[in-house]
Amino acid sequence: MEPTEPLGRVRPQTVRELGEFALIDRINAGRVQAPAVLLGPGDDAALISAPDGRFVVSTDMLVEGRHFRLDWSSPHDIGRKAIAQNAADVVAMGAAPTAFVVALGCAADTPVEVVDGLTEGMWSEAGRAGGSIAGGDLVRSPRMVISVTAFGDLRGNAPITRSGARVGDVIAVAGRLGWSGAGLAVLASGAEIAPAADLVAAHRAPRPPYGVVLDEPTRPNALTDVSDGLLADLGHIADASGVAIDLDSAALWDPALEALAERLAVEVALDVDAAQWVLAGGEDHAFVAAWSSGSELPLGWRRIGRVLAGQGVTVDGLRQPGNGGWESFRGAEPDRR
Amino acid sequence: MEPTEPLGRVRPQTVRELGEFALIDRINAGRVQAPAVLLGPGDDAALISAPDGRFVVSTDMLVEGRHFRLDWSSPHDIGRKAIAQNAADVVAMGAAPTAFVVALGCAADTPVEVVDGLTEGMWSEAGRAGGSIAGGDLVRSPRMVISVTAFGDLRGNAPITRSGARVGDVIAVAGRLGWSGAGLAVLASGAEIAPAADLVAAHRAPRPPYGVVLDEPTRPNALTDVSDGLLADLGHIADASGVAIDLDSAALWDPALEALAERLAVEVALDVDAAQWVLAGGEDHAFVAAWSSGSELPLGWRRIGRVLAGQGVTVDGLRQPGNGGWESFRGAEPDRR
């Protein structure tokens, strides 16, 4: 025991002390794989079922300090977020998640309990999405990096792309908009605002409503998840479909966000616009879709706009100044090495 | 132009200057996808064919300074290596590579030509393996990180795992052993040894002999690729199969490596053992397999040992001191942040 440690306190074991192979055993111990995983960890590769002869695949990388902060989120939340954003991409194609593989890079002095939290969060969200973690890679990296690849099964259906929106369609959303961005603003402000706990939780680990796509027999004409910001992601649908989209601001108004913006203005003199969280805040992983105008919207979906002839995305007929979508290399701050 | 730049020299464009979306367009421009890629980049996820209702998947992460150095390898070589090591894992299950997805993290000041080189190398090796790059993710990271996920099709065959070796089987290898480790030793020594160019090239970008598995109608009982070192990787087969493996040192002798070890001893006083490169050097991505003793070895395979009752791996009946296999978190050097 280090002489400076309080008596009785056990210094956290690091991944270097435990070793790569013991850590892999620990990560995989007692896990029950989803039915789609025919061969799980332990060989050169995993084997996954693809019942209809195709599979959907999406991959995302999360870098510490860029996509998450260990002082703002628990390892469990970070693990959940890493799986959720990939599962949402798979569901946004109209497919049911089946399995995930995860590559994790971390420093040798990373406490084992941080890896425990990450993997628990990942398994928890993978289960929520209907899959399991079939394998991965574990490497040493000075900055923590999590790379998730997610797989999904279309169950014989056609994929729902971004290019199927037609003039006259209804634009509808399922899930919350702007909550992740608002939660991030609270964390960045350092303010302690108790009623904002749900928004901060929404930032730390989004909960995409997978069921609003997967449980419905009727399917939208175009679909995506809101990862870069509502205007940016609807812009992708408008571009890919060759149509214009107009949103109804009244349908986007969220009293919880309005109240929070007011409190941040009063308590920490922060000038924020709740509408910007809704229109440009990413990472909520809500689903947004174009539905045929004749069809009744399934439960969980709410109408926020419509598809018109033309191009671009407007709100109440007006173009918005700057979409504010996420762009990886924007910003002049130097990379920390 | 910066005043300190020589007249007429164009400063390399960085990924920040080009921007994420223009860089993604540049990466994907003019690419021809493999037949298995039903939907490529541009939507929430890709769609890949899996004709026999299953797919093989492997993922690996490569971290700059840990798995590659931009001053030791060209971006093209690094891209090839990233794809090759994943394709080798897929082939080591007996499957034919069909597609890859790639997540790339790089600093905002990375020259665009570095990304060009990486992606060219990736596409080149993906084509060599029989697949293409169906999608990916591009994020900002202070240290370069490449995460590749590879997919393969078993064509109706059973997967070839590590657990199928039986007492009496012949152990055979296809591809070179120890060349990557020897090439690394040359790079690390700083010595300029012209005849070692092939070994250095083998370290910079391995060329796994995919065809020795994929083109053969007869299949081995157990198979893996040599990524961690021959003894370590055969140890996995011995453990998984519940058998012992004995190697014949005479069959492992490589005159090119012996000659190099002698030159390093004479010219830079480096005390190296060529046998250690063969037994413990990883990253060659040769294939090693257990074949039924009755069957004739297909072209490209050479006998190096046999499967016995018992456990562990020996050379000429002797246990080796320390397997020397790669372990990610070993080594006391601090992580550079």
Automatic annotation (TrEMBL), chains A, B:
Gene3D superfamilies: PurM-like C-terminal domain, PurM-like, N-terminal domain. The keyword Thylakoid does not apply. Mg(2+) 2 binds at residues 60, 89. Substrate binds at residues 67, 283, 326. ATP binds at residues 136-137, 162, 227. Reaction mechanism of ThiL seems to utilize a direct, inline transfer of the gamma-phosphate of ATP to TMP rather than a phosphorylated enzyme intermediate. HAMAP family: TMP_kinase. NCBIfam families: PRK05731.1-4 (NF004351), thiL (TIGR01379). This is Thiamine-monophosphate kinase. It comes from Nocardia goodfellowii. The gene is thiL.
